[in-house]
Design a protein that fits this description.
alpha/beta; eight-stranded mixed beta sheet; 12 helices; globular; 6-PGluconate_DH-like_C_sf; NADP
């Protein structure tokens, strides 16, 4: 079985190191030449909540030799065009792309390689690339979860095969409602990761600002409205049904604030990757988050004005139209809710 990780950055480095350690022959593929060089010369160094230094095999995309049975696809969605060219050229005729990106990424990948060659996988843990060859695990090793599913929700032999592989790099589960889990994660990220970028601070800054939290709540509300129109049933996260945070009046919103605080409070120190991207001059994945809610809203005739506004603001921050500043929250125009 020939395996590869396409986009072996922060997450891919950890997965590749763990799979290699557990006996898998796997290529770590990345366009970052200094990173690839460091991986080959010094091994994959995992720090943070795991200490591991594992020799691995790393290559750049132009060094791929084809015949891959499975490619774990972790490339940022902003680089799909260039990355998927290599995926299509190097995947076996009956090979599978395991789509592990953020947002609702499977359709874009399926357009290039064919729907029958795509599996969805939601990664439920985090890591940060500290320097070439070094990835810092920021989640507890026993919380390294994956949710695996076929796009049609059916069972399949390859689902079980990938499950067995990922058991060596965390705790996978199989689901028949992949889109429901994706939508739950999309809703949370679109509300808090995006507002973290808008206010140029961690999630705690969103929770501590009346205006920013109201914006996050409105993004959440619009996302749930789109899900209803699209007949998507969001899956609970850690036993919590995100639909419980829907609201129609100002009074209802105020009643939900303690629930927002309880749900997101443990994550108040998280600073969105989009902010790091903007600061580093890289394009943020805003179209992968709120852009999806807005586009699906257009498709299903559901208004999503706040999602559209924050897409424009984050894009404007990257383009230099707006400064990286907490004052950007004032750019969002909220429609006042009825009091009761």
């Amino acid at each position: 079985m020939k395996l590869g990780i396409m986009g072996a950055g922060s997450l891919g480095t950890v997965i590749g190191a763990m799979l290699t350690k557990n006996g898998y022959d796997i290529d770590l593929i990345d366009v970052n030449v200094p990173h690839v060089k460091a991986l080959n010369e010094k091994g994959a160094q995992i720090t943070g909540l795991m200490e591991l230094n594992q020799p691995v095999k790393a290559i750049t995309p132009d060094e791929m030799t084809g015949g891959y049975d499975y490619l774990l696809y972790l490339t940022k969605t902003t680089h799909n065009k260039s990355a998927l060219k290599y995926v299509k050229e190097n995947l076996k005729a009956d090979g599978t792309v395991v789509c592990m990106q953020n947002g609702i990424p499977e359709d874009a990948v399926a357009e290039v390689v064919g729907k029958e060659r795509v599996l969805g996988c939601i990664v439920g843990w985090g890591a940060t690339l500290v320097e070439p060859g070094v990835s810092k695990l920021t989640s507890e090793p026993d919380k390294m979860s994956y949710d695996l599913g076929e796009l049609d929700g059916q069972d399949s032999p390859r689902l079980h095969e990938v499950y067995e592989i990922l058991k060596n790099a965390g705790q996978p589960e199989m689901t028949n409602n992949l889109i429901g889990i994706r939508w739950t994660k999309l809703t949370i990220n679109s509300a808090f990761s995006t507002m973290s970028a808008v206010v140029a601070g961690p999630y705690g800054d969103v929770l501590d600002s009346n205006k920013a939290l109201a914006c996050a709540a409105q993004i959440w509300k619009e996302s749930l409205a789109v899900a209803r129109a699209a007949n998507v049933t969001p899956e609970p996260i850690q036993g919590f049904d995100i639909r419980l945070l829907d609201h129609n009046t100002q009074k209802e919103f105020e009643q939900k604030i303690p629930i927002f605080q309880k749900l997101m409070g443990p994550h108040r120190n998280i600073r969105t990757g989009m902010l790091y991207d903007i600061e580093g001059g890289r394009e943020p994945e805003i179209d992968t988050y709120n852009g999806i809610i807005y586009n699906w809203g257009q498709k299903y005739n559901v208004a999503t004005p706040v999602n559209k506004q924050v897409v424009d603001i984050v894009q404007g921050m990257w383009e230099g139209k707006y400064k990286i500043s907490p004052l950007n929250v004032d750019l969002v125009k909220l429609t006042e809710l009825p009091l009761e």
